[in-house]
Amino acid sequence: GGGVEAAGVAANSSASSDTSRNSTTRAPREGRETAEGSSPPSGKNSTHAPEGSPDENREGDVSVKGTTSEKTTTSRTTPAPTTTVRPTSTTLTTTTKTTTGVLDRTFSLERKIMCIDPDRCDKPFFGVNLAGWLILKEDLWSPMMRDVGVHDEWTFIDKRGGPLGEQAITAMHDHWGTFVTDKDLDRMMAFGVTHCRIPLGAWLLDGDAAVDAGFVKGGERYLFRLVAWLKQRGMKAVLALTGAPGGQAANAPWTGKRRDAAEFFTSEAHFEEGKVAIGRLVHLVRSFDDNALTRGVIVGMELLDEPDPEFWATSPGVREFYEEMIPVVRSTLAPEKCAVLLSFAGPAAKSDGAEWLRSKRREAPEDFAGVFYDAHISHRPGGGEAKTLLESPATASCKTCCRDPALLKLWAGVPVVVGEFSAVMGLDLPHAAAFWTSYVENQLSLWASTPNILGAFFASHRSVAASENATMAMLRRRRLADDAGSVAQIAPSLLAIIATVPRGWTPEVSSRLCPGEDLDKCPDFESEHTSWRDDCQWEG
User: What is the number of other CB atoms lying within 10 angstroms of the CB of residue 8?
Assistant: First the structure.
């Protein structure tokens, strides 16, 4: 692995910080088994850091220790996981020549980068976000955060004595060591999952800077262990810079610290720090590929996550950052080695971003080959249902099968990865299993029947709920009042869905959109006049 130095970006430091400087570094402790795979972190025990790091370029002698069983593994070749996600090939358009090169409208290169198996590159992958792990999220760790008025990781650490406080260090290491386990990966892989999207903060890329910014350092060693686990299972991953210096969006606790303004764009210093962070992220990807235990796992990196749309066309701004950083990434990571995902928000997410990316693929195909549009799609109550905050299974299926295909046409002509998809539902638990089996299969059929969507990540793999009660212990819950009284609004993690559906059930995916629905009953939607908040009701 090496650094990047271009466009004023210095990649002069290792992505793995010297954790030995922190005498309180900790390792994963064994967790108590729960329905989701391991117990939530308690923040009480103190152990040793997981062995191995991205900078140890040795073959076969870096131990990787699990949370459910401790074992030392050496480098080995693992066949790609067998899944039941087998959509048939879809009809693709032909390539189009331009004056500056070839714009491949079949997205053959992009498919090759992301596919888990060379024989299945024409099929979209099924992935999951490891959200709430390396950057805390209040809704995914409710008992320790939202329920006690803590909304972001910075505050969580500050209330425990700051980044050098023993209580904060213990709590973060326990969380990193137990929130994602090897058994979690096994359960999700058996369900058909082949890829993980891993949100992380810029502070993970520079341990000393982490402390200065108010964050506990040391998370990169747990990331290394996770990537090694993925290697053992033949799985792939994308690293997403979700916490940019200063925060890329206002009032966004998922960036690590909620701020009143998107300081990444309002501060020249933070904007420049972001460029350095991209250089370090490039080096991290390279270092994983240089290590036999992690080689070939990282197939993509994301430059920003849902940046504030107010700064799309400003300077400093989103578009400027993307146009400057993509050549920097490509100077070290060739398109066939690493995809680049670009996230958009607001008006840029509907049309401006896709039009800009289409134009860049025509103007600079060498730099923009392997660059993906990252779309985030969440079904939330809207339209006529906004009053009660309830969404019925029929409405959810109508959105997937009727409304969403019209909206996806806005992104035609660019390769798309759905970086997050989920549904927030209000329904009685006895009906939950039937809904989630239908929802998952309908969503996967939507991706499989849309030629330029190459894969999708479910929004979260785990959530820790406030109450322990069988399946409900794994569901995010908020009590919402409507005319009939209190109802539960549910946005489950993937492990919760796996625990809710019949034992052993796995999604069967058709390349035909929603084969179990009568699409003749779909209402009409026009792409230009439709939004993700629009209601949808079957006709007839």
Answer: 10
Q: Is 343 left (phi over 0), alpha (psi -120 to 50) or beta?
A: beta
Beta bridge pairs of residue 9: 6
Contact 475, 490 (CB under 8 A): yes
Local structure of 521: helix, strand or coil: helix
52-98 residue pLDDT tens: 554 444 343 344 444 333 333 333 333 333 333 333 333 333 333 33
Strand-pairing partners, residue 370, are none
Give the pTM: 0.80
**Dist. CA 370–CA 109, nearest whole Å:** 7
* Long-range CB contact pairs, 443-447, < 8 A, 24+: 443/400, 444/85, 444/87, 444/124, 444/126, 444/507, 444/509, 445/87, 445/509, 445/510, 445/511, 445/512, 445/513, 445/514, 445/515, 446/400, 446/401, 446/404, 446/405, 446/408, 446/513, 446/514, 447/124, 447/418
CA distance 21 to 329: 30
Rg (CA), the chain: 22
Instruction: Report how far apart, in Å, the C-alpha atoms of 205 and of each of 11, 64, 236, 239, 243 are.
Output: 11, 21, 20, 12, 11
Residues forming beta bridges with residue 5, ordered by sequence position: 10
